[in-house]
Amino acid sequence: MIDFSLSEEQRQLRDLAHEFAAKEIYARAVEHDRTGEFPTEILRKAWEVGLMNTHVPSEYGGLGLGVLEGCLLAEEIGWGCTGIGTAMEANGLAEAPIIVAGTEEQKKRWLTPMTQEFKLASYCVTEPDAGSDVASIKTQAKKAGDEYVVSGEKMWITGASHADWYFVLAYTDPAKKHRGMSAFIVPRESQGVEVGKKETNLGQHASDTRAVRFSEVRVPAANRLGNEGDGFKIAMAAFDHTRPVVSAAAVGLARHAMEHAVQYSQERVAFAVPIARHQAISFMIADMAKDVEAARLLVWLSAWTIDQGRRNTLQAAYAKAFAADTAMRVALDAVQIFGGYGYSTEYPVEKLMRDAKVFQIYEGTSQIQRLIIAKEIFERS
Ligand SMILES: Cc1cc2nc3c(=O)[nH]c(=O)nc-3n(C[C@H](O)[C@H](O)[C@H](O)COP(=O)(O)OP(=O)(O)OC[C@H]3O[C@@H](n4cnc5c(N)ncnc54)[C@H](O)[C@@H]3O)c2cc1C
Predict the structure, then answer these.
(1) Largest CA distance in the chain
(2) DSSP string computed for 47-67
(3) How confident is the model at residue 14 (pLDDT cuts 50, 70, 90)?
(4) How confident is the model at residue 1 (pLDDT cuts 50, 70, 90)?
(5) What does the pLDDT average to over 182-205?
(6) Looking at 228, 363, 376, 379, which residue is catalytic?
(7) Atom 24 in ligand 1: which residue has the minimum CA distance?
(8) Ligand 1 pocket, 112 CB below 6 A?
(9) Is the per-residue pLDDT at 2 higher than 90?
(10) Strands (E), the chain
(11) Is the CATH code 2.40.110.10 the one for domain 121-228?
(12) pLDDT exceeds 90 at position 381
């Protein structure tokens, strides 16, 4: 039996997130977009009302929510502002590898404090010369007694200057390519950690993106997640949990762009009728509605699959590719529907168009999602 209805608890959670998104996020989104100021106070409030670290298991002080619940929250927060949402979601991405592969001890050490105090963390995989091609990273972790010495440079790290600790992927045996990578938790205050300047990005200005340099940083062997050589697997497994959530944020953005387009097209008159009465406009809106709905269904499918304890790599790639492309297309069409006003910063849709683009880039580009889908298809046939 298929049932698409949400439970009472899920509806309440979604409503709480929507109320928070409307009052605390959307109300200040334009200001953060303009100034680029990191939304610390909004994130702190989100933490206080329980909208952060929601997937941390209850044994470690979290709510232990499923990926589907995470998606319900992310859609509403993404509706509010995906820049602020990305700043919030950095914790989810950094924590996922620990949830997936951490020992009891490591979960207590790194996850529990996140639920007791307002803290942030970052996920450090990408490097200046290696993004999609993760096997080309150069960061190395060399064993030295019961420590590792980590050296290398990470790039495009969300939340880097506010993080208390970093999830870091590094080679322990470069000759083995991706089977020679290991994963570490590196505290921010470690000697040799240097955070770069804030990048000036096209959109999502509230989020903080920076390079992080690790210069001979000594990390206790106890901070290694899994065995030596497990790093790539762990970093990728984390995406199975986070890609549905990121995709849900893209759905939230697309939904809001559509809402603006629906309202504006009924108010704006051209050739003596509201532009919504011109079929070219109403069909654009019909396409927005069907794609938002389809994207949400793929998001829910990918979340439901992993919540059932099944592998969802394929479904998460469907969701990420479709939701990211939908967000971009819907936001672009919303600008078109607003005409000249769509091009102005006085109106809301140009921000959505700028914010949407990164969904096709981070957490695996839209091309990489298609590579994953194709690989799964051909491996099965
Ligand atoms: C705002 C922002 C925040 C980010 N946050 C983080 C973070 O917190 N942590 C982190 O580790 N990373 C983060 N990233 C990095 C992001 O994940 C990478 O930018 C992304 O994976 C792409 O890597 P790249 O930029 O090196 O592009 P490249 O890998 O160089 O790709 C360039 C282009 O080539 C295409 N391409 C590459 N390989 C193939 C192929 N085999 N087939 C077809 N096309 C291909 C890509 O799709 C893309 O269009 C962030 C990026 C941005 C912009």
Answers:
(1) 79
(2) HHTT-SSTTS-GGGTS----H
(3) very high
(4) confident
(5) 98
(6) 363
(7) 131
(8) no
(9) no
(10) 121-124, 140-144, 147-158, 165-171, 181-187, 193-195, 209-220, 224-225, 269-270, 273-274
(11) yes
(12) no
List the residue whose alpha carbon is closest to atom 22 of ligand 1. Answer: 131
Inform me whether the pLDDT recorded for 64 exceeds 90: yes
pTM value is: 0.97
The finding on whether 158 has its CB within 6 A of some atom of ligand 1 is: yes
242 lines ligand 1 (CB under 6 A): no
Cα separation of 3 and 193, whole Å?
A: 49
SS3 assignment, position 12: helix
Ligand 1 contact, 131 CB (< 6 A): yes
* Domain extent listing, the chain: 8-116, 121-228, 233-380
362 CA to centre of ligand 1 in angstroms: 6
Ligand 1 lined by 357 (C-beta under 6 Å): no
Domain spanning 8-116, CATH architecture? Orthogonal Bundle (1.10)
9 catalytic? Reply is no
Span 128-150, mean pLDDT?
Answer: 97
The pair phi, psi for residue 39, each rounded to 5°, is: -85, 55
Evaluated on CA atoms 120, 125, 128, 132, the torsion sign reads negative
Mean of pLDDT values over 170-179: 96
Q: The domain 233-380 is classified under which CATH number: 3.90.550.10, 1.20.140.10, 3.40.50.880, 2.40.10.120? A: 1.20.140.10
CB of residue 371 inside a 6 A radius of ligand 1:
yes
* Cβ neighbours, 10 Å, residue 200: 8
- How much is the average pLDDT of 121-146? 97
Task: Report whether pLDDT(380) > 90.
Answer: no
Structure-token pair, residue 63: 């709510």
In a mutational test of the pocket of ligand 1, which residue from 84, 91, 126 has the highest number of ligand atoms less than 8 Å from its CB? 126
Residue to mutate (ligand 1; options 199, 207, 236, 362; most atoms within 8 A of CB): 362
The finding on whether 126 has its CB within 6 A of some atom of ligand 1 is yes
